[in-house]
Design brief:
Helix content: 25-40%
Order of helices and strands: HEHEEEEHEHEH
Strand content: 15-25%
Distance between the termini: 21 Å
CATH class: Alpha Beta
Low-confidence stretches: none
Structural class: alpha/beta
Shape: globular
CATH superfamily: NAD(P)-binding Rossmann-like Domain
Number of domains: 1
């Protein structure tokens, strides 16, 4: 459901510096670890969000978006679609510009909440895979 122009995606990736990853995992075999690691390796700062706390990718984990006190540019979501509307509302409160629901996550309600507050919304697409593709084709 990637319904955003390539030029807009390129602009978003170039403007983003800090990404809060909701559902980040310390399990190196899960996509919720591999994708944030890839994004971190590309120069983005990743803030892992997981109620279990601890450290992921060398970063302290926050238990919810509400605990973040610094400016965040994007929220990348690795949680079930049923949780997406509440996450979207928290992303709006945090003041981010982009809500990204990972591959397989579709929530028209979350899209409505976020887009009505002015956020760009991407659903059902992998933030890392899209970045990789743009990097190869457009030198991102």
């Amino acid at each position: 459901m990637l319904e955003i122009e390539v030029e807009d995606l390129l602009r978003l990736y170039r403007e983003i510096e800090i990404i809060a990853v909701v559902g980040a995992s310390s399990d190196e075999h899960k996509q919720a670890h591999k994708i944030p690691k890839y994004l971190q390796d590309q120069g983005y700062r990743v803030i892992p969000v997981n109620p279990q706390g601890g450290k992921i990718l060398g970063e302290p984990v926050v238990r919810s978006l509400r605990e973040i006190t610094e400016t965040v540019d994007a929220v990348d979501v690795f949680r079930p679609a049923e949780e997406a509307p509440a996450i979207a509302a928290e992303a709006v409160d945090l003041g981010v510009g982009l809500l990204w629901l990972q591959l397989g996550i579709v929530s028209p309600e979350a899209q409505q909440i976020a887009s009505s507050a002015g956020l760009t919304v991407v659903m059902d697409a992998c933030m890392g895979a899209v970045h990789r593709k743009l990097r190869r084709r457009h030198g991102l």
